[in-house]
Write a structure and sequence with these properties.
This protein is an all-alpha fold. The chain has a domain of about 375 residues: Sodium/glucose cotransporter, CATH 1.20.1730.10. Helix content is about 75%, strand content about 0%. The chain contains 25 helices and no strands.
Length: about 575
């Protein structure tokens, strides 16, 4: 693809903007780790929430969705649509708790909730494991996606694409801190969405496709199903481009609560927790997470899905179907739009990279360096170390990129590596008996289980996910009952500050002489309403767009009704109560 002068001008403008923001925010970021990693805990909900959405709108996602649609049809997207169940848990159960905890990173939660050497060891291990190892894999797959786009559209080799993209991002992130990151995210999200819609529109307008209606003439009917199809006799599954029933059950029934995955962490950890803790107060934390969930699942998917379907018509025999999305950009966008769409990809890439680098550095500096290496240094020293650490993570992730082949391959690896840990991340907030050894067992068990499955079975994803979840859950529960609970003083301190609800803290409340925990039945009703809101809106929009689907307006009406019901329940209790 040849870029014109106007394309390069548009693209250059998008690249300059983050550096201007970084220079503006660098001085405030230098005031301490609270400013550098949490923006002074003063972000309004719309800014924190949009930053969450922008972070998960990475360069990898449109390519991955194109590959999913080619392999499993629209229903294949349940690999990430299932995460809406966990996201609504974060909105209604965890957002206010994270803000109330008053900690700098979600890894620091470990020594707030637990005590002793086991807690210290767990904190250090989780910081290195998530902040460096897993983070480098995540950055690696986003790098891979961006490299595919640039190699397909501009002819760059993978190494050049990776290092140019990382160098630009690492330079401004190391200066900007979280405030600069979220301000840039606001601009980058709007640009990335504009580019995604443009790709979908130009793709379906091609004569070979024939518009939205033309998609139905070229592709099997099962491609357009939103859920897997089962034959009337209960035997085999639907057509070749339909997600398997086993995979659907694994995604909807297991994955969303059982596995750790960036942007879908059970209990709202990771960079989502970072945004929750950076919000102005608990009300802003809840609203930010609600806005993220709506935008993430209902606003973003359909331009990618439509473009993926069109790419399947335009390039039906690709060995790597993820490339179809990039080829649409290369072959079917006019001058000017090429620069804008590539700018959108660059914006999505830089938004994700900036968060991953800042978030990973927060673990390595606050939870490793400041905790175990130099606990007595001043804030200026820690900020300098944070900036250097950001660049170190950037370089390490570049090496990982060269060993990945597909985005989906990396997605599945991360899901399997965290299979089964999700339940302990949820229950540590709501059951006093969970201890540091519970989390240690939940982190170690998947590695042993995966090694055994790889050596002695021929099972593949997602079957391996179900087995690993069962193995890990049993392992950490057995370890929990075989080890001593946390000291009462630690449990009482945690309960008094965070005030979690539910019967799991009744014993601690009695010992502390504190009011009993609030019941959580009402929150469960809210959660069901929130889940209905998300899926009704998601599929209502889809039914209006995808050929052959009906009931779009009815689904959207159901979404509005359940959204009003949810808002009314929270308003009746009083939004102000969230800040008490």
């Amino acid at each position: 693809m040849t870029l014109t002068t106007i394309d390069w001008f548009i693209l250059g403008g998008f690249l300059v903007f983050p550096f201007l923001v970084a220079l503006w925010s660098a001085r405030r970021a230098s005031q301490g780790l609270g400013q550098y990693f949490l923006a002074g805990r003063d972000l309004p909900w719309w800014l924190a929430g949009t930053s969450m959405v922008a972070t998960t709108f990475a360069a990898d996602t449109p390519l991955a969705v194109a590959g999913i649609v080619a392999q499993d049809g629209i229903a294949g997207n349940w690999i990430w649509w299932s995460g809406a169940l966990g996201s609504m848990l974060s909105v209604l159960f965890f957002a206010r708790l994270w803000r109330r905890a008053g900690i700098l990173t979600d890894v620091a939660f470990v020594e707030f909730r637990y005590s002793g050497r086991a807690a210290a060891w767990l904190r250090g291990f989780r910081a290195v494991y998530l902040g460096l190892l897993v983070n480098c894999v995540i950055i690696g797959w986003v790098n891979l996606a961006m490299a595919k786009v640039l190699s397909t559209t501009l002819g760059w080799d993978r190494l050049t694409a990776v290092f140019v993209g990382l160098a630009l991002t690492g330079a401004y992130v190391s200066l900007a801190g979280l405030r600069g990151v979220v301000l840039t995210d606001l601009f980058q999200f709007g640009l990335a969405m504009t580019g995604a819609v443009a790709v979908a529109v130009f793709a379906i307008r091609q004569p070979e496709v024939g518009g939205l209606a033309g998609l139905a003439d070229h592709l099997p009917a099962d491609t357009f199903r939103f859920v897997p199809a089962v034959s009337p006799d209960g035997g085999g599954l639907g057509g070749t481009l339909t997600l398997s029933l086993t995979a659907f059950v694994a995604y909807l029934g297991v994955q969303w609560w059982a596995s750790w995955y960036p942007g879908q962490e059970p209990g709202g950890g990771g960079y989502l927790a970072q945004r929750m803790m950076s919000a102005r107060d608990e009300r802003h934390s809840v609203l930010a997470t609600l806005w993220f969930t709506l935008a993430h699942y209902c606003l973003r998917p359909w331009p990618w899905v439509v473009a993926g379907l069109a790419a399947l018509v335009l390039y039906p025999d690709l060995a790597d179907p993820e490339l179809g999305y990039a080829m649409v950009i290369r072959d079917h966008l006019p001058a000017g739009w090429r620069g804008l769409v590539l700018g959108g990809f660059v914006a999505a890439y830089m938004s994700t990279m900036s968060t991953q680098l800042n978030w990973g550095a927060s673990y390595l500096v606050h939870d490793v360096y400041a905790r175990f290496v130099r606990p007595d240094a001043n804030d200026a020293h820690y900020v300098q170390v944070a900036r250097v650490t950001t660049l170190v993570v950037m370089v390490c992730s570049a090496g990982v990129t060269l060993y990945l082949d597909t985005v989906r391959q990396a997605w599945e690896f991360v899901l399997e590596a965290g299979a089964g840990i999700g339940l302990v991340l949820i229950l540590r907030w709501y059951w006093w008996r969970v201890n540091a050894w519970s989390e240690i067992a939940a982190m170690v068990a998947p590695a042993f289980g995966y090694a055994w499955l790889a050596a002695y079975t021929s099972m593949a994803f997602p079957d391996t996910l179900i087995v690993l979840v069962i193995w890990t859950t049993v392992s950490w529960l057995v370890v929990t009952w075989m080890t001593a609970p946390e000291p009462d003083a630690t449990l009482i301190g945690f309960y008094r500050r965070t005030r979690p609800g539910g019967p799991g803290w009744s014993r601690v409340a009695r010992i502390a002489g504190a009011p009993p925990p609030d019941p959580i039945g009402g929150q469960l009703v809210d959660w069901l309403a929130g889940v209905t809101l998300i899926y009704a809106t998601l599929f209502g929009v889809g039914a209006l767009i995808i050929p052959g689907r009906r009931g779009g307006l009815l689904l959207l009406a159901a979404g509005v009704a359940t959204g009003s019901f949810l808002y009314g329940r929270i308003a009746k209790r009083g939004w102000g109560s969230l800040t008490q």
